């Protein structure tokens, strides 16, 4: 194993601009609490989305390196599971404190590699940090149950860790999604192999460093890199007992199927097409701010981005106001003061989004606000698309059927609440949805009938806080939503129940003949 030289991810200073990096360093991987340089010759170039300057080269770890990560996690498992839950809780408290201390540094890494604005990147870290904070309640969350079945018999349940588990993460939340996994997987006594997105692993590397500083023993948290081959290795490695995946349907459905066929537990959060239904009785100004923020924030690259607007009745007349507010957003490098949204992740992603906008035009929709061709003066080479609004959209159009994952709002109009509900329910995705109304009964009807798994009532991005769970539905989650991230279901995913039934009969109750009937304990 080759120790990595002084690395950006371990430095105390961090970037605050999109300036070209003069000495580009390769991203290390992390095993046994050590940053290591990969011996591979196969690297993925990572470019700053605002400039397309090279930031780092991400290795595709070799099979031997991936095997070393598994061996490390296997060695660490038994001693780690033997530690007291209070010990693990104390490490989690330290981890939480270190994330807070390194909040700006984590956010800066995200802005540089992923492109979102620094303020938004701080939110990315915070939503993950909140999961780590909730994981500090492990002694409570890991409690089992006891029932005194009879005077001499009791049944108890224990929650036991699974062993080595793995997490495969997407590019759009480089801190939050690793933090959906690291805290809960480890505090419950498992050891973890994390594969961040090859497009922005910097935040995960900082989290690895903080995990080591917090006192996680060697091998409890490991980070490896790569793309499909690394994922296939994880899917087929028998020592890995469970996989947490967040990302696209294409990758996730494959991962769920192959991982499950190999006997692993798999939880997989997938793509989305989140609708907002707006009713004429809503608070118009609050709604416009909410929909513009949630459609275009993070350049639309959130799985809960509010990308589809269903305008009920006369609200279709509000489109010029929505377009006006969208136009006022500042599209710029994420480190620039006042930037509201940054670039999209890659030139390929920009081209894909632009082709979806073009397809809408070709299919007869209207481009009310066209963000194609926009470039901030200081960053002419970035992957820019300014807020775009497409109106007159119908469910048959490609821009409606596909997840655009860019700063594009598609708008449909209907006459009634019932029509809005039917339209939204006919969509195959079911991640999030929002309704804007001042009417309690309207909101209640919507809440009952809507099929999406996360509902906002006058709340544009209803991502549940970590004492709840992330409950997407339909095509937005694999396996029918049987296993969801964080909250109690997250603890359940990373633990196996063991149920013990004990009988303490008094001496004179010992009979002379074996009872061959099925015991009923009644
Ligand atoms: P992605 O599926 O391209 O990549 C996710 C991970 O899977 C990466 O680590 C990548 O290396 C790996 N991967 C990609 N293609 C693969 C393949 N064919 N075989 C094996 N592994 C593969 O997703 P992305 O572009 O990084 O993220 C955006 C997507 O994630 C969007 O669809 C978004 O809606 C979704 N997402 C969903 C949630 C949620 O909770 N539902 C949250 C965030 C993002």
From TrEMBL:
<dbReference type="InterPro" id="IPR015590">
    <property type="entry name" value="Aldehyde_DH_dom"/>
</dbReference>
<dbReference type="InterPro" id="IPR010061">
    <property type="entry name" value="MeMal-semiAld_DH"/>
</dbReference>
<dbReference type="GO" id="GO:0005739">
    <property type="term" value="C:mitochondrion"/>
</dbReference>
<keyword id="KW-0520">NAD</keyword>
<feature type="domain" description="Aldehyde dehydrogenase">
    <location>
        <begin position="38"/>
        <end position="500"/>
    </location>
</feature>
<comment type="similarity">
    <text>Belongs to the aldehyde dehydrogenase family.</text>
</comment>
<dbReference type="GO" id="GO:0006210">
    <property type="term" value="P:thymine catabolic process"/>
</dbReference>
<protein>
    <recommendedName>
        <fullName>methylmalonate-semialdehyde dehydrogenase (CoA acylating)</fullName>
        <ecNumber>1.2.1.27</ecNumber>
    </recommendedName>
</protein>
<dbReference type="InterPro" id="IPR016160">
    <property type="entry name" value="Ald_DH_CS_CYS"/>
</dbReference>
<keyword id="KW-0560">Oxidoreductase</keyword>
<dbReference type="InterPro" id="IPR016162">
    <property type="entry name" value="Ald_DH_N"/>
</dbReference>
<dbReference type="InterPro" id="IPR016161">
    <property type="entry name" value="Ald_DH/histidinol_DH"/>
</dbReference>
<dbReference type="InterPro" id="IPR016163">
    <property type="entry name" value="Ald_DH_C"/>
</dbReference>
<dbReference type="GO" id="GO:0004491">
    <property type="term" value="F:methylmalonate-semialdehyde dehydrogenase (acylating, NAD) activity"/>
</dbReference>
<dbReference type="GO" id="GO:0006574">
    <property type="term" value="P:L-valine catabolic process"/>
</dbReference>
<dbReference type="Pfam" id="PF00171">
    <property type="entry name" value="Aldedh"/>
</dbReference>
């Amino acid at each position: 194993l080759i120790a990595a030289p002084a690395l950006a991810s371990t430095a105390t200073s961090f970037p605050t601009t999109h300036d070209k990096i003069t000495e580009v360093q390769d991203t290390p991987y992390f095993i046994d609490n050590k940053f290591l340089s990969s011996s591979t010759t196969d690297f993925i170039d990572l470019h700053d989305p605002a400039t397309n300057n090279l930031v780092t080269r991400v290795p595709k770890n070799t099979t031997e390196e991936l095997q070393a990560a598994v061996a490390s996690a296997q060695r660490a498992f038994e001693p780690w599971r033997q530690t007291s839950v209070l010990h693990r809780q104390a490490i989690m408290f330290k981890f939480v404190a270190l994330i807070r201390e390194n909040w700006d540094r984590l956010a800066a890494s995200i802005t540089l590699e992923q492109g979102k604005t620094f303020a938004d990147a701080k939110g990315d870290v915070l939503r993950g940090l909140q999961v780590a904070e909730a994981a500090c309640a492990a002694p409570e969350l890991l409690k089992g149950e006891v029932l005194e079945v009879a005077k001499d018999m009791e049944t108890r349940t224990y929650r036991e860790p699974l062993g080595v588990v793995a997490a495969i993460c997407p590019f759009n939340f480089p801190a939050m999604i690793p933090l959906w996994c690291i805290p809960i997987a480890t505090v419950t006594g498992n050891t973890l192999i994390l594969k961040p997105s090859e497009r922005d692993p910097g935040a995960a590397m900082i989290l690895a460093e903080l995990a080591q500083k917090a006192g996680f023993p060697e091998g409890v948290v490991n980070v490896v890199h790569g793309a499909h081959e690394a994922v296939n290795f994880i899917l087929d490695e028998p020592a890995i007992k469970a996989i947490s995946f967040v990302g696209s349907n294409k990758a996730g459905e494959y991962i769920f199927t192959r991982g499950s066929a190999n006997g692993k537990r798999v939880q997989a959060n997938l793509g989305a097409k989140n609708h907002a239904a707006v009713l004429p009785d809503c608070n118009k100004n609050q709604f416009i701010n909410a929909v513009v923020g949630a459609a275009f924030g993070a350049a639309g690259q959130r799985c809960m981005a509010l990308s589809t607007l269903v305008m009920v009745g006369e609200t279709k007349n509000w489109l010029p106001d929505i377009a006006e507010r969208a136009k006022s957003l500042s599209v710029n490098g994420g480190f620039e003061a006042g930037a509201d949204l940054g670039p999209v992740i890659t030139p390929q992603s920009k081209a894909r989004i632009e082709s979806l906008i073009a397809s809408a035009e070709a299919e007869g929709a209207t481009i009310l606000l066209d963000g194609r061709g926009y470039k901030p003066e200081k960053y002419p080479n970035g992957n820019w698309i300014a807020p775009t609004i497409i109106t007159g959209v119908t469910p048959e159009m490609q821009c409606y059927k596909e997840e655009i994952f860019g700063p594009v709002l598609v708008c449909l109009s209907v006459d009634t609440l019932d029509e809005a509900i039917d339209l939204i329910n006919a969509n195959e995705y079911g991640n999030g949805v929002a309704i804007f109304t001042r009417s309690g009964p309207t909101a209640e009807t919507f809440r009952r009938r809507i099929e999406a798994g996360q509902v906002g009532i006058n709340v544009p991005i209803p991502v549940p806080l970590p004492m709840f769970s992330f409950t997407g539905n339909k095509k937005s989650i694999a396996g029918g939503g049987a296993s969801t991230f964080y909250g109690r279901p997250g603890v359940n995913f990373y633990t196996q129940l063991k149920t013990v039934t004990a009988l303490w009969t008094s001496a004179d109750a010992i009979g002379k003949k074996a009872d061959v009937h099925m015991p009923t304990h009644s």
